[in-house]
Amino acid sequence: MPQNEPTVLTIILNWRSPEMTLKAAEAALREMEGISGEITIVDNDSQDGSEEMLRSALGERGWSRIRVLQSGHNGGFGAGNNVGIRAGFSDGSRPDFVYILNSDAFPDPGAIRALLQHLQSHPDTGFAGSYIHGPEGDPHLTTFRFPSIASEFEGSVRFGPVSRLLRAYAVPVDIPDRTRRVDWLAGASLMMRQSVLDEIGLFDEAFFLYFEETDLCHRAKNAGYITDFVVESSVTHIGSASTGMKEWRRVPAYWFQSRLHYFRKSHGRVYAGLATLSHVLGGGLHRLRCLVTRRQPADPPGFLLSLFGSHFHKEKQVNNHRGSNKPRVNGV
Predict the structure, then answer these.
(1) Residue 129, H or E segment
(2) Strand residues in the chain grouped as ranges (E)
(3) Mapping DSSP to helix (H, G, I), strand (E, B) and coil, where does residue 155 land?
(4) What crossing angle do the helices spanning 212-222 and 77-87 adopt, rounded to 10°?
(5) Rounded to two decimals, what is the model's pTM?
(6) Engineered SS bond to 104: which of 238, 249, 313, 331, CB 3.0-4.6 Å?
């Protein structure tokens, strides 16, 4: 790598979507022009020929700046990205910045450079994320506050006067029209300072999917580092293409387990219990209102029962809770 130039390692996680991953890699390669670094595609144990297809395509296209790694097991979003982060560059050196990009996300012109320049000019910022929008230009909400007891009630009760009263605690943050600090960002397009990861650790692999970015940004905040939303960095995102979330009829068990792990890890068991009770109380009131007004509850079937029940189950190690319904995982 050239001396004295900041280096960026871009990581794209693939799980059974090699064609889309190659499109994301092509967009990232274009936007890495003039930036010192490499792109690593991590195949998250697809076992469908994805790895071979990716390696063959890279050879045919002459993309020598991109390499493919095999995770060896589908440990989820955080674990898959950790494989790429730990590997570093192909010569064994480590980057100054790590950029994670979803396989269904495509950086617009200048997107990667805007994040890099922001982190270079803001030394207190640990992480910087992009403005995410759909193929038709529709904005995707990726800016959030940290969850709390109050936010659990506000989000589940779904009642205008309560939401206005607890507005300062609501997890979703209206998409800013300027670059600004937020609590945490979704990981579809997120650049991280390697020195911060060295200090606070990588993604917690106990999260199979969901809450891993929340936890990472929370740990960064506790260590004194800021997370910034950078509006000048724009990325086109298909959205839920890799997780299958749009096809959910019931919320999967790993979501409840990730939520519980986050609250217990960040705030302790008592706080986690109060957060769950707050959500159940709010959700119960919402369902009562729906019963009176003869409307369909917003929660999926069995949601409150699963939420309440998950709190009393022992936290399991990753790999123990996936069962035969292993979800598709390469991003949000």
Answers:
(1) strand 125-133
(2) 7-14, 36-43, 66-70, 97-101, 105-107, 125-133, 143-144, 180-182, 184-185, 189-193, 226-237
(3) helix
(4) 60
(5) 0.92
(6) 238
